[in-house]
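Protocol step 4 of 5: obtain the predicted structure for the target chain.
Materials: sequence only (see below). No template structures provided, no constraints applied. The aim of this step is simply to have a reference model before the mutagenesis design in step 5. Sequence pasted as it appears in the construct record:
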Amino acid sequence: MPVAFVLVDAETGRVEEVLDRLLRVNEVVEAYSVAG
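Step 4 output (structure tokens):
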């Protein structure tokens, strides 16, 4: 199974929405939010 690390820049307050949409993609198995 291929593995990819993808960095996404999201607006403040939209991180949860972006994470939720990523998890809806069938090929996405895991997604995490990291701030800093």
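Step 4 remarks: The mean pLDDT is 92. The two ends are 30 Å apart (CA to CA).
Proceed to step 5.
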